[in-house]
Amino acid sequence: MIRLLHTADVHLGARHADLGEQAAAQRQRQFAAFRRSVDLAIEERVDLFLVAGDLFDSNTQPRRSVERVAAELHRLVQATIRSVIIPGTHDVYDRSSIYRAYDLAALAGAPAGGDMVVVLTPERPDVVLSALDAVVYGRVFDTKRAPRSPLAGFDVHGETRATWRIGMIHGALSIPGRTDGDDVVFEAGEIAASGLDYLALGHWHSMLSARAGGVPYAYSGAPEPVAVDQDRAGNVLLVTLDLVDGVRTATVQERTVGRTRFERLDVDAAEVPSQATLIARLLTHAHPDLVLDVRLTGVRPDQLDLDLDEVEPALAPSFSRIRVRDLSAPGLAIGPVPPAETIAGAFIRDVEARISELEAAGSADAAREMLDVLRLGRLLMSGQEVTL
Amino acid sequence: MRVTRLRLRDFGRHAALDLAFAPGLTVVRGPNEAGKTTIQRAIELALARKVTSAQADLDAIRSWPAGPDARPVIQLDFIEEDVDGTRHGQLEKAFRGARGTVRLDVDGEVTTDPAEVEDRLARLTGIPTEPFFRSTASVRHHELEQLDRDEASLRDRLQASISGADRGTSAARKKLERALHDLQMRGDRNPGRLKVADENVVRLAAAVERGDTALALLAGDRDALGLSSERRRTAATALGEGRAMLEKARQAERFLADRDAARERFERFRNAIALAREVEQLQVSPPSSHPLPVVRERVERLRSLDREIAALSGSLDGARQMESPMPVPEPAWRGWALVGALFLAAAAAGAAVGILVPGMTQGLLVGAVMGSLALGVLVGLVALRRRRALLHGRVSGLLRADLDARRAHSRAQLELDLAAKQADFATELGFLELPDIAAAEDLLARQDAHTQAIDRTRARLEGLAGTLTPDELSRQRDAAALEIEQKTAALEALGPIAHEPRARERLETEVRDAETSLERWRDDEAKARARVEANAVDAELVAAESEQLAVSRERLAAVQRRARIYTETLAAIERAERATMRTATRYLERTMVADVERITNGRYRRVSVDDRTLDIRVFAPEKADWVAVSQLSQGTVDQVYLAARLGLVRLVTGDRRPPLIFDDPFVTFDDDRAVRALDLLHDLARDFQIIYLTCSDRYDAVADAVVVLPGPSAVDVGPTDEPEPEAERELEPVREPEPEVGLPQELGQMRLLDNNLDGSDASSEAAVPTRT
Q1: In this model, does residue A15 exceed pLDDT 80?
Q2: What is the 3-state secondary structure (H, E, C) of A86-143?
Q3: SS3 for B159?
Q4: A34: Cβ contacts below 8 Å, ≥ 6 apart
Q5: Do A380 and B172 lie within an 8 Å CB cutoff?
Q6: Rounded CA gap, B338 and A261, in Å?
Q7: What span, in angstroms and rounded, lies between the C-alpha atoms of A269 and A281?
Q8: Which residues of A touch B126 (CB under 8 A)?
Q9: How far apart, in whole angstroms, are the C-alpha atoms of residue B129 and residue B78?
């Protein structure tokens, strides 16, 4: 039996343009999730720690970041847990690869020439872990875009060096129409033909576990979500490979290590009578680990006078990060319009005509701006209080 | 549209109120706090406020003494006259926020949908909105105050009438301009939000660009480092291989040299061995058993003896010849003399013939004579010489006989010596066991040649191998043969390079090139590594700046959007002003002339209104020039303003005729101004229903109807259902209330009671609408 922890897509040092000032904290969370993955590996006394690509978000991450990773790998070395890492598409194994620039194994204090920390590359496509009676294959290219499927012609049925055959790939399982633009794509049929006991995958940030022709494969997903749409991120996989009555089995367990949750919330502006109401309503979602992306949509009532520069600071302490975007638009003038002989009537007709022109031209943003112009002009001319 | 009756419940001060209005000018009179403004507000709300409105001001008009569930209710009866005839209508609005209800009944056609009701009311009144109502049909009590203070007041107030809102646009424009100014301030001390956001974006964008450039540089340098390292490794490998091949080539050269040397040694020793064997063979088969010196000595002696024997034999032969000399023949001279004489005779004969025989050929005869003559002479000479020799020989014979005797003695001695020498000669030949000297000479020659052959062979042997023994020679030869074999095997082991001509030279050149290449790639690698190490860019810091930039850009976009909205709003307002003011001014100029003429008793008959500012001027005949209206008397200004104001109402309401509500705008006028103003209103009442709210009774005289409200301390007894006949003038001001619209018949009584509970200074005095 062999037990392994499978993670991928840690994306250390990733940029989070959507998170603003919270982005640095999110990067810390990503590293913390990686550390918890290591903690879990040690607690569970796994035999093997796999990172299926994109450990780093780019090849230009600072030495400080590499050393922090190496320190975590060192803990695994001390716990006699072997680590096998493959480069991904962000930390691609090109000539400027971070894995060429730094010797992770050496930084992690692994004995030279040993197999405690191994980075699989095109030059070193596999490693035989004799102590584990396993061989790990890293199907890696030295270019971001793979010249062919990483599993093209890959077949380990004849492997004689070890009992357990574990594959690692950073790429997309082919889904026609969805993965055509991906850099590294492989087919389920190729997995089925590989003869592997387990295929550890990276690239998709959401967890997925399945079988292809009896070969178990899984995407661990990112240990800490990197973007809003990663609904099944935040996990690592504990995988047990066993031989029962001559039959090879694989058991995959999902374990949570991430903390951050991303949620999107669309609020109909028509249902928000005031700024205070909006704040109170959003506070019902408050959670320190929640990144809440709020969009005000629909038609905004005239009396709703929002200042997002006040809303976000008021909510910020209650969330990991909250972002409120006002995508709503004021309505057209409701009810009878003043006669065209009046300034307000002329104003409304003029602006509404412009709105119609912009909408007809498909300039939705400009039309929405003109709706704001319409609202502002109407309110100002009617003497209502408007925050400018 | 003319309102005939207004009933209120739980509306502001009025718990229950029922008023009737004349079609023309109705004065609603009551002391302060009697609720006149509330009546104005009620009509505004009834005609222009959507019943489902949830605006906060509705809470303020709710009658606070009423129960918690009580909500303001307005009921309004009206008539509408147009080309199609007169229609009667009743409107009831019960304000309960979103649950508010409305009911509009026009000649039995009932509508309860709030939006539809608002739409129909707007069409009936020409008043689309509440602000519009306030800016047109509702004239407030402060509106005519201080009109003479400055032109801007008059202008703004007039503009408000065509603004379509409840105020002019100047305030809006000022507010927008101020907001824009605040946004766009570029100063360093108090920068506007636009500048702050813009500078933030510029600063962060520059930082991010620097960071990204540095990161790209780092990636490029790392790539270059990787490339240089690869090339360095490749060059090092090539150099290593080149050096290895060079070493092989050098080894091959050494092996070849060694093998050649071994071959040379092998050949030498092999030849030496052959020579040694040759010497041995020569030594065992000499031509003579005697050594060469002995043979040579014997042969030399034989030669000497042979020469002596020859000499003795010669001497002896000479002596024998001298001892028996040969007879010397005497020369024959007579024959020669005879022949000569014959030739001479022939010549003489020929000459004689020639002379004697004429006719003979002269030439031939002369030749023959001369030839014979010459031959005769020559032969005669020979004969003479031979005769002299015959004489000399006869003398010599005598001398020779003496000599022969001495010679015979010498010959005997010679014969003895010769015999001795011949004996020695034979002895020597016998020693050599040879038959003659020729054999001895041959033996000597052969012995000498043999010895020389041995010497030469030995010399060659020594030249090849020194003084080695044959065994040693064999060992050396075998060693050389072994070395040849070994070197050949080693060369074969070196591969093709061992057989390539000039491989070493080629490889030396290649290795030199590879060393140069390696050095270059090492330099490149070192430089790339130095660049990588010198690049202090921190990707995480760049990421943070990038994220700040995204936020800043978003903020900048928001501020820019805000500025665009302000700018466009301002521009749109100005466009609307320009579009409407011109129409308004032309309209005013047309419609005000009659009013101004009447107001000024014909003094001013021409009016000019500025398109842009709405400034009004009149033509003063005494000055023969235009005069700003602000220069006229205050009373005139009031009336000009009022005329303009109402003119604008006509303009903006078109063919609609909403009721006009005046909240005592003439309160500050003296009686004269007030009456003149009322006169104007009275004229206006031909077209519009006018409801004039006032505390004063000075307008009663010009009113079509007067409704008196009780003071706040009075008990409101409500309006009487039956109007006093004597109060009616030209029109029926009050219609019977219709109970079915929702207000109970006992409303009047309830109203009285409720007004007692409104918290004001209530009194028991009943408020009784009266008619004058």
Answers
A1: yes
A2: ECCCCCCCCCCCHHHHCCHHHHCCCCCCCCCEEECCCCCCEEEEHHHCEEEEECCCCC
A3: helix
A4: A7, A10, A12, A55, A69, A72, A223, A224
A5: yes
A6: 177
A7: 12
A8: 339
A9: 19
Who contacts A169 (Cβ-Cβ below 8 Å, separation ≥6)? A52, A53, A86, A139, A150, A151, A184, A186, A199, A200, A201, A202
Measured on CA atoms in the order A110, A114, A115, A121, is the torsion positive or negative? Answer: positive
Interface test mutation site (partner B, options A57, A380, A387, max chain B beta carbons within 10 A)? A380
CA–CA distance, B670 with B673 (Å, rounded to integer): 5
Which range in B386-395, B561-570, B662-671, B714-723 is most confidently predicted, on average pLDDT? B561-570
Q: What are the structure tokens assigned to B732, written together? A: 């029926």
Is A254 a residue whose pLDDT tops 90?
yes
Tens-place pLDDT, residues B77-131: 999 887 778 889 999 999 887 788 999 999 889 999 988 888 888 888 888 778 7
Specify the length of chain B in residues: 772
pTM confidence score: 0.66
Look up residue A13 and give its two tokens: 């040092």
Closest to B61 (Cα-Cα) out of B13, B94, B97, B12? B12
Q: Which residue has the tokens 């009578």?
A: A273
- Section B242-259 average pLDDT: 91
Lowest mean pLDDT among B464-473, B497-506, B724-733: B724-733
**Residue B573: closest CA among chain A residues belongs to which residue?**
A347
Backbone φ and ψ of B627, nearest 5°: -125, 135
Q: Which of residues 262-281 of A touch B (CB under 8 A)?
A: 273
- pLDDT above 70 (res B756): no
Residue type, B396: S
Tell me, what DSSP letter sits at residue A181? T
Distance of alpha carbon A8 from alpha carbon A277, whole angstroms:
42
Instruction: Looking at the complex, report in whole angstroms how far the Cα of residue B74 sits from the nearest Cα belonging to chain A.
Output: 20
Residue B765 has pLDDT above 60, yes or no: no
Alpha carbons B358 and A370: distance in angstroms, whole number: 180
> Which residue in B219, B34, B43, B258 sits closest to B716, CA to CA?
B34
The string of pLDDT tens digits covering residues B269-328 is 999 999 999 889 988 888 888 888 999 999 999 989 988 888 888 888 877 776 655 666
Is A337 within 8 Å of chain B by CB?
Answer: yes
Q: Print burial letters for B578-588: b (CB count within 10 Å at least 16), e (below 16).
A: ebbbebbbebb
Residues A97-113, buried b or exposed e (16+ Cβ, 10 A)? bbbbbbebbebbebeee
In this predicted model, what pLDDT tens digit does every residue of A292-306 receive, in sequence order?
989 999 888 877 888
Taking a contact as any Cβ pair under 8 Å apart, which residues of chain A between 1 and 40 contact chain B?
13-21, 23-24, 27
Residue with tokens 């009616």: B728
Model confidence pLDDT, tens digit, residues A108-149: 999 998 999 999 999 999 999 999 999 999 999 999 999 999
Burial B450-479 (b: 16+ CB within 10 A, else e): bbeebeebbebbeebbeebebeebbebbee
**Residue A79: is its pLDDT beyond 50?**
yes
CA distance B176 to A373: 11
ipTM of predicted complex: 0.87
Q: Using CA atoms, how far apart are residues B35 and B8, in angstroms rounded to an integer?
A: 11
Both structure tokens of B529:
């590594």
Give the integer Cα–Cα distance in Å for B650 and B584. 10
Confidence at residue B67, expressed as pLDDT on a 0 to 100 scale:
67
Residue of B33, B7, B61 whose CA lies nearest to B709? B33
So what's the pLDDT on residue A51?
A: 98
- CA–CA separation, B289 and B295 (whole Å): 9
Output the six-digit token pair for A223: 């240990």
- Rounded (10°) CA dihedral A218, A223, A224, A228: 0
